[in-house]
Fold this sequence. Notes:
- The chain has 643 residues and is an alpha+beta fold.
- It is 28% helix and 27% strand.
Amino acid sequence: xxxxxxxxxxxxxxxxxxxxxxxxxxxxxxxxxxxxxxxxxxxxxxxxxxxxxxxxxxxxxxxxxxxxxxxxxxxxxxxxxxxxxxxxxxxxxxxxxxxxxxxxxxxxxxxxxxxxxxxxxxxxxxxxxxxxxxxxxxxxxxxxxxxxxxxxxxxxxxxxxxxxxxxxxxxxxxxxxxxxxxxxxxxxxxxxxxxxxxxxxxxxxxxxxxxxxxxxxxxxxxxxxxxxxxxxxxxxxxxxxxxxxxxxxxxxxxxxxxxxxxxxxxxxxxxxxxxxxxxxxxxxxxxxxxxxxxxxxxxxxxxxxxxxxxxxxxxxxxxxxxxxxxxxxxxxxxxxxxxxxxxxxxxxxxxxxxxxxxxxxxxxxxxxxxxxxxxxxxxxxxxxxxxxxxxxxxxxxxxxxxxxxxxxxxxxxxxxxxxxxxxxxxxxxxxxxxxxxxxxxxxxxxxxxxxxxxxxxxxxxxxxxxxxxxxxxxxxxxxxxxxxxxxxxxxxxxxxxxxxxxxxxxxxxxxxxxxxxxxxxxxxxxxxxxxxxxxxxxxxxxxxxxxxxxxxxxxxxxxxxxxxxxxxxxxxxxxxxxxxxxxxxxxxxxxxxxxxxxxxxxxxxxxxxxxxxxxxxxxxxxxxxxxxxxxxxxxxxxxxxxx
Length: 643
């Protein structure tokens, strides 16, 4: 007779072999119930709850148990006394070099285990092929991807300032929807970059609204225009308006109060919170630096002068009348966005734009054009004030993201010249938490784990809890610090000692092991962008049938999401009863729960559940999705729900 899905999952679980990675073998490891046990660490679980000293037991890439595991055997033991044991950090604004993804040393030494690629509107058209190609040599981190509005616009409309036809708008919508079906984590945009800059707000809304039913997010590099006086506040308001009208969550990415608007962090946060109160949840992310890095022409050369691409732009520079106009607008942009040309440096050559202007007796705008004509394009641009950065860092809806990505260790020049690529996460934990005491360690970790996971819709990472993927960073809270500077941007950070990705030890005692435990992550329509739950749930009862297996759920949760209660799964092949529950994540009409259940033979099986009564993509009706032993999701109808 055929095996039930539960039996199949158990057979597959028993057949898997433990991962190999460098660690201290424990006695009697041949029949060990755990692959790895992390002992006596200070566990900060990503919910914002206070740290707890306890052990973490891992098997088959999943967290099976927390608590006192002194009597448990394990193939490998990590001694973590005096260390923080946190969920691996999730970077939701990631510019990884695909060649560096098998090693990702600059990210692992920051504690990063998951990267969401394709921010700022730039992506491949076929993200499935992009992800597969990126993972071909092995992955040191988990990767997912956005689909980029700018790239879709360029593919259909081109690199010119013209209005798309109705057929072209539909073509762009089709491309976005295809990417969402393939697992994209949202639609990113960079409306400050060309050619996305050329799209009107109405056109952007018309295109990206196809993603509205997917309940996902719209991270946008806000558009600052001469017409608005290069206003960050106007650009952020536009992001909120577009996403809200399209039915998406506006995500204010690498948020800034730039140039002449420094000191306006409170106003920006008030705008975001007003949108959230009106039903348009508006999170954000920020990095702990006061300068950014991008192409020199992106924010200095006016949009009309960039129409047609770099060659057309350089041709316009040669026209004396056009050059005067371009230089005048570049000077205005420098003054409004960056104050003076002295706040613009060129990492490839080590020069400063203000110094070049004085040397040649020209304006900053003219100096910028000369630099571009020489073939140098990358710039570091100082935009911000420390008071604004501090206000953003403490705001509860603002995650930490580095606007960086995996790079090859010996890379020179290009976009590797900013310290954020090596120092972002340790800088927050070392400087702003330990030294400045700006926020608690628990809150900082939440901003790097549970909050970004909720922002993009991840359900099985971002927390240390039974049933969650074993992505873990072990760091010394007394030593963690960044060392990268603008003069030495590739200096590795200190303090992150061990990193596990999918239960595989990839960093041991600060050194890479060469193992690759990363996976390709894909989002489904049942994984909505949502606020990180911050209220108790007194009771949730669900009964459903999933491919012949009867699932019965009766749980509650505290304000941090820690679940209590029971889950039973009964079917033709026997049954499972929950023995340890993890995190209950909630949103209107939606819930996700992780945990570990036990079969009649005493074997522990991790499980994940998603209850969804609000998904417009899959149609009406309450659904319950079940995954056993990290296997595929199986869906069934939820027959009764309370409340």
